Amino acid sequence: MIKAHLFEAWEDIPRFRIKRGQTLAHVYSDRNVAELMMWARQNGVSAAWFQRHARMPHFDLWGSRLRLTKGLSRVTDREMVRDMKVLAERKRAKAAVRTGGPR
Questions:
Q1: For the chain, what is the domain count?
Q2: What are residue 41's phi and psi, to 5 degrees?
Q3: Residue range 54-94, pLDDT digits in tens
Q4: For 26, which of 45, 58, 89, 100 could close a Cys bridge (C-beta 3.0–4.6 Å)?
Q5: Beta strands in the chain (DSSP E)
Q6: How far apart are CA 46 and CA 88, in angstroms?
């Protein structure tokens, strides 16, 4: 499922014209990156906005792009952290299968 975590910028980010307190969104999949990339293509989201973080690959959206979060499952900080833990556990399990043991 594609999810959106809305939050406020904690500082100005001049190169993106983001002001402290402005609403931003992390958009991510609780399943896999392929699902997220399909959502991005379907919604005209540029691959340049993708953040390939090991703990939570996601897109950063702000300004008029926040409209793309309409209809997505909105999550709290706590729910996003829970999803990050689940994804990390899936990665560990997948790596263990590939290597023949736990990591």
A1: 1
A2: -60, -45
A3: 889 999 999 999 999 999 999 999 999 999 999 888 888 88
A4: 58
A5: 2-8, 23-29, 50-51, 58-62, 73-74
A6: 25
* Residues 6 or more apart whose Cβ sits within 8 Å of residue 84: 55, 56
CA distance 99 to 103: 9
pTM of the entire predicted model: 0.85
Which residues have CB under 8 Å from 9's CB, separation 6+?
18, 19, 20, 21, 22, 23, 24, 62
For 18-55, write each residue's pLDDT tens digit: 999 999 999 999 999 999 999 999 999 998 889 998 88
Q: Which domain holds residue 37?
A: 2-99
